[in-house]
Amino acid sequence: MTELAQSQQPAQAEHGPAELVTRTPDLAERDPVRFQRRRVLIDNLLRFGTPVVILLVWQAISSSGLVDQRFWPPPSEIVVSFVDLVSSGLVLEAAVSTFRVLLLGYFGGALVGIVLGVLLGSFRKLRTALEPVISALYTVPKLAVLPLLLMIFGLGETPKVLLVAFGVFFIVAISTMSAVAGLAEGYLEPARSFGASRIQTFRHVTLPAMMPEVFTSLRISIGTAVLLVIGIEFVQGREGLGFLIWNSWQVFLADRMYAGIVTVSIIGVALQSAVTWIGRRVSPWAPRR
């Protein structure tokens, strides 16, 4: 022991005393409440300030004559056109028509997608049989199916609703199937150990675990539904926001066309925010960004 201690002393003298590492706590550690308030303020400034800056730059460029106002009217003219459309009732009438098709197709496709996704994720043989078919049909452009639906169901809302449901179904079904089939064995083993039935396991284990991914697919699919219903109204329709935008382009009313586009974007953001809000209330255990 004496020889070992003597051999360590020169090494300590050679390298000097051990360095003391100090670390100053940041704001998040010193004052979490203040840090969170500051973070929310910055996020809101970025979230709402960026569109305002873009609109101001657009207004300045368009008003200065650097771009052709026939194609790029200033936002101030678009706002005036939007107010006129609202006052005349055209936007409300078009929005009601679009909403009717959108919501019917969305809820129908989402419901069928969740049910089939749970079944495919729960039963391996069924998943093996149907997954290639679903994957193949998912890659088909959805608007390419519209002529077939028009031949079968004729003109009217039915082909529109079915096409929106068609697009929503695949996103929700594939995501739900992936969430159920990819459930970690560590979640299922305790339920089996306590003798839980298949229904009890689904209710207390599978359902809570799959909810975050399901609501993510619902949020993505609502945006897809908006794209589809507007595209359908471009191609086939005499009413709706898509027809309003397309008709405004045909008669060269750029300001009214942009007003319709803004209306669609507002609807899309509102619907996605609503789905996100519902998802946070239904599955509060899901991680947040």
Automatic annotation (TrEMBL):
Disordered, as annotated region: 1-21
Which CDD domains does this entry report, sorted A to Z? TM_PBP2 (cd06261)
Q: Name one GO cellular component term.
A: plasma membrane
Q: Identify the domain of life.
A: Bacteria
Where is the protein situated, by its record's location annotation? Cell membrane
Annotated GO biological process? transmembrane transport
What membrane topology does the annotation report for this chain? Multi-pass membrane protein
Q: What is its main location?
A: membrane
Q: Where is the ABC transmembrane type-1 domain?
A: 95-279
Mind telling me which InterPro entries this protein's record contains?
Answer: MetI-like, MetI-like_sf
Q: Which family does it belong to?
A: Belongs to the binding-protein-dependent transport system permease family.
Q: What name does the UniProt record give this protein?
A: NitT/TauT family transport system permease protein/sulfonate transport system permease protein
